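Inputs:
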Amino acid sequence: MMGIEKQFITKKVAVIGTGLIGGSMALLLREKNFTNFIIGVESVKSHAEQAIQLEIVDQISTLEEAVAQSDLIIVAVPVVAALEVVGQVLDLVDRQVVVDVGSTKKELCGKLATHEKRSRFVASHPMWGTEFSGPKAATRFAFSGKAAVICNQEQSDEDALELVMEMYRYLGMHLLSMNADAHDMHTAYVSHISHITSFALANTVLEKEREENTIFELASGGFESTVRLAKSNADTWVPIFRQNKENVLDVLNEHISQLRKFKASIEKENWGYLRELIEKANQINRILK
Amino acid sequence: MMGIEKQFITKKVAVIGTGLIGGSMALLLREKNFTNFIIGVESVKSHAEQAIQLEIVDQISTLEEAVAQSDLIIVAVPVVAALEVVGQVLDLVDRQVVVDVGSTKKELCGKLATHEKRSRFVASHPMWGTEFSGPKAATRFAFSGKAAVICNQEQSDEDALELVMEMYRYLGMHLLSMNADAHDMHTAYVSHISHITSFALANTVLEKEREENTIFELASGGFESTVRLAKSNADTWVPIFRQNKENVLDVLNEHISQLRKFKASIEKENWGYLRELIEKANQINRILK
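Outputs:
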């Protein structure tokens, strides 16, 4: 069998931000032979050192050098920084393709809509992550089997889209296309609210439980899985909630109102209603494997 | 090395309820040579057939036969049924030991406090479970490394306690002792509330998201892990919330108030406060590995 790797000329890739997402992409894109040369741009000195040491990138450069030497520039910085960085990169490109991987799309796409090189940019979001951050969190066990969303694709050049789609296929992801507004609404439901419930659950337990050893000893898999995301980084998540404020508040209000139904059913000892609520929740089975 | 298995005379075990917990205990207690003969008591006919077919139990008997033929009787039925079943079993025992494995302890221990054979009973709770139920959900990959709680142990005979503690050690669990009231309060925090937040999160998403394919396609690992418990069975959980009503309501009120802090910080665009809330939640790191 001829591998697709052989038919595809490997590209020089720059990764701006060598943390969990950028670092994992770098590791896998090299392993899958999408590229054999990766330049890192990293503003945190310790992260830059780790990225070299962990062989995530071949060299660390300035933004300008990295853009000049690359075919594809992946912007993998927190979403508030991306608002500036993607524009800076676009200012520098001619033939190159620029892709971002952030969790919010509306504000970024809005800001770049009138950039004269907008068509060299592909707005995307690979739906994968963990509660950890930084180059040390980067892993080859990433992305595969999950969806990558491409937003407002009609604003990107065809060759730019093709390269980015090819990249996601190398990562084992399937592609979805939607506009940036729809993306931000959907991700509020399937990602952002999960983080808020986890943070709030952690604070609930930390607030009330003073005997920490007891929590530690008693915590079973169920608790760990619901609270896992509470370890997630504020640098990543504050800007996401900020950029997706309206959608996140909509979902959060709905979630609080759903919790109140559970509360009311237990308070009023309406066990039939509680059963209904649980059986309705069980329908998530139809959606998640 | 002499295995501990060889030094311990294997016991005949009855498992009343051959679902997730009872079935998993049966599979492992046989595999670890704690017992080589397991009698099942199962009121659901299809479950009884599955328990035989899956080699969870050697035979299905009536409650009376099972108790008469066993050294150790494990009651693994939903907590509302346990209120009746444990008493029925105790009525039948003389030398035997009876242990339950339910998620609530206060009401059961209260009810049995004056039973004339109370001392043959050990109230316990292995802190392990999954979102699945029934004999087909039973698995050998259970219990190990988690805590098993024994409640009100001063009310149990020493030989009964020793046998139950031995059983949990065979399952690879470490033992904790506490009174039933403390158990129910702690489990409200580290287990019961996680189920409510998962149920409510599932209902939040199901309520608002009509495009199910989009949820399905977009859902990443984070969403799956926070919503996993929403698949849990109403037959198991309604009685748990019912028996632990006061503690569950306390935690649920606290959780809603924690969610309101996130809501307020986002509504008021108080990003510094939002960061504080997230960084506080990150402290769950200290507690969970």
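Remarks. Residues 1-7 of chain A have pLDDT under 50 and may be disordered. Strands of chain A lie at 12-16, 37-41, 59-60, 72-75, 97-100, 121-126, 147-151, 174-178.
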